[in-house]
Every structure is written in structure tokens, then in C-alpha cells.
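hey so u asked for the seq, here:
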Amino acid sequence: MNGIRQVACTLTALTSVGLGGWYLGKFSEQRRHLNEKDNETSVLSRMPIRSMPGLPLFGTVSAATSLTSAESNRQMGSKVSSIATRVSQIMKFGFPGLDHVRSYEDFVLSYDRRNKVAHWVFEHLTKDRLQYKNEVDRSKCEFKPDQSIHPFFRSENIDYKGSGYDRGHLAAAGNHRMEQNHMEQTFLLSNMAPQIGVGFNRDSWNRLEKYVRKLTNVYKDVYVCTGPLYLPKKESDGKKYVHYEVIGANNVAVPTHFYKVIVGETNDGKLDMEAFVMPNTPINDNTPLSNFQVPLERIERAAGLLFFDKISRDKLSKVNGKRII
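ran it, C-alpha cells below
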């Protein structure tokens, strides 16, 4: 009888310790979340941004990532802790890749390590930020490999040499005139894609970039997302194939097309959207830019991305110049 009583006492003590530890852990976790909420830049304050090129400077993830709410996590309680423990076991020796987002001083980029060309580049333009400044000089900028990207996955200047393609900007240099360093960062090769020079990069694509800058005369804020597309083409056998060239020792992909998705916000909060796709080929410079406007959904399906998904489509006043009824 004494033995049974001793076992019972021991089990009770162990249970108490376990419950106490669990509650202490939950309390500590809540305190940690509160501290983080009070100081959302606590991580940033301990490390300089320049040493953390893969860290997004925005606070939420949307579109492609499903997240459970903080309230749901609290309700799940120990199950969340169990899942986290299991994930840490599975991924004990590291994730193959989570560093594809690069936050620079004046634009944000998502990098495609396989193709050595960005998935997308995001910019925010205003009339004030585009003002000409004598101290910001494009001629001082040099094309440079992005040292923040692993050598296996980055492009080099030698890849473009003799290829017949320009190092075409995705975030246009002319969009970043606030500081010399802002413009210089647009010359990192992670912001480049192989583009046909005469008839495209130096002509029609340049016209589109200038058009986007002129939109700052109409809108107080202009948001623009730019990227490559690799579109299929029907061949003589009736089947569709995706064919694209690669250049250099690093096999830098040559996109078949490029897109720009633009949202302009007026002073009274109205939102207009325009979406363009241009083939990476010589284009007659007299071709109206409106000929390249396409429904946004077409780009999203082709790119595997959702653009401006926090804007409800019924909040848009105009799309591609046509008023939404």
C-alpha cells in the first residue's frame, strides 16, 4: 500500500512539474510576442541592414504563403509547439532555400536562383523622388555581380560578353535618383536580365519606363512590379513548348517576354491599374504602348504570381485605361 501511495505521489509531482513548465513556456512565449510587437525592428536594431540582404523590410507575407493567425496558434497550444519541434527535426540540417527576397535601399527583388534572373522587382515612385539631382550621376555606376547571392546562382558580367544581349534593368536606373547609392544598386546583376538591345531595351522598353515615370505627374504614388516571362509557343507538330536561350558559363536565362504591372494612387485614394507584356524582340518604335496592355490575370497565370493581391479588384477605378463599372 505504501508503495502504491509513493508511486502516486511521484506521478503527481511529475505532472505538476510538467504543467508548470508548460505554463511557464506559454507565458514566456506571450511575453516575447508582446516585446516583439512593441519593437517590431528589434532584430533590425541588432544588425545593420546591409549585412542582411535577404531580409524583407515588410511585415507581412501574402499571396503565395498561407499563414495561421496568432489567435489560431494560441488555440492550438501545445500542438503548435509539437509541429514546430517536428519541423526542426525534419529540417535539422537547413532549408534548401528561403533567401530569394532581397531588400535594397530603394527597391525589393525576388531572385530566381535557377535562371539567374529575378522573379520580380518592386518599386515605389513619386514625383519628388524622381527629381533630377546633379550629385546623382549614372555615368559613375558600374555593372557588378551581386555578392549577396551564392556564387552557384549569380550571373557575372562575362556571361553577357559577346552574347548579343544587353544587361537590361528591371528596376530602371532612372527611377532611383534620390541618392547615388540607390542608382548604383540598380546596376547589380541580380536586377538585370538579357534583353535585345536595339529595338527593345534601348527603344520600346525604354519608352515604357519613361511612361511609368510620367505617371507620377498624375498620381501621388506609383507602384510598379517588373519581371520576366517564359511563354510557350505552338510548334509545327501542334504541341506547345517553352524554348528560351541561356547565355554564359552560368546559363543565364533569356526571357521570351517581360511584364510590368502598375498601380497608381490619386490624392483622394482612387486606384488605377495597368498591365503590360512585351516580347523580348525588336519592336517598331512607333507601336503604341497600349498594344501591349493585357488582362492582369494573363500575367499572373504565366508568372505563377499574384500581384497587388491586397487590393480588392472592385476597389480599382480603372484597369488599362478602362473604367470599372
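The two ends are 83 Å apart (CA to CA). Confidence is low (pLDDT under 50) at residues 1-67.
lmk if thats what u needed
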